[in-house]
Amino acid sequence: MSTSGTPTAGFDGGAPPNLPPVRVIRSARRKESVSARISDGVLVVRIPDFLTKEEEHAMVSKVLGRFEERWRCGHVPLEPRARELAARFGLPEPRSISWSSRQRLRWGSCSAGSGDIRISSRLADAPPWVLDHVIIHELAHLVVADHSPEFQALVNRNPNAERAEGYLLALSDIGSRAQPSRQALAS
Questions:
Q1: Who contacts 92 (Cβ-Cβ below 8 Å, separation ≥6)?
Q2: Among 111, 101, 123, which residue's Cα sits nearest to residue 172?
Q3: Are strands 22-27 and 42-48 parallel, antiparallel or unpaired?
Q4: C-alpha span between 80 and 160 (Å, rounded)
Q5: Is the separation of the CB atoms in 61 and 80 below 8 Å?
Q6: What's the pTM value of the predicted model, to 2 decimals?
Q7: What is the distance between the terminal CA atoms of the chain, rounded to a whole angstrom?
Q8: pLDDT per residue over 9-25, tens digit each?
Q9: Residue 125: which H helix or E strand, with range?
Q10: Residue 31 burial (C-beta neighbours within 10 Å; 0-12, 13-18, 19+)
Q11: What are the tens digits of pLDDT across the range 126-148?
Q12: What are the boundaries of each domain within the chain?
């Protein structure tokens, strides 16, 4: 096993400033998989020895992206926030609420039958009032499954509803001009 480089602020171009340094370890025994973990404040990425520098860079970039998304989301606890918003707006609490990195067309989703809510990890850096609006939107689905006037009345209990929807609409347009804006909040 050989070690490529020492812990640095990143690899070939650097990691985002809020992430730990990266250390890449090449292994002749590793055939396909790539693994990553934090060890003593360093993100250690283990890769097969046969990868080219370009493949190494691509793999490490992918790992860093996933790590950074988890790190950002880990700093915003959803469960206490959902409980507080449910109490404040007279909505039921979800059975569970968690971040989802798979939601690319929606800001949130609700499985009304099970009471499970997923929030897009793209909102981890959004202003708190925007995240609160998406949580309220999904909590309202625990009462009304569709987007009827009854549902809208529940969502509009939030005094920031219109402002937050404007923010999300702008964010959707910035992220992808082809993405239908009405789809953004649909769940």
A1: 86, 115, 139, 142, 143
A2: 123
A3: parallel
A4: 20
A5: no
A6: 0.63
A7: 48
A8: 334 344 445 677 888 99
A9: none
A10: exposed
A11: 889 999 999 999 999 999 999 99
A12: 2-74, 78-183
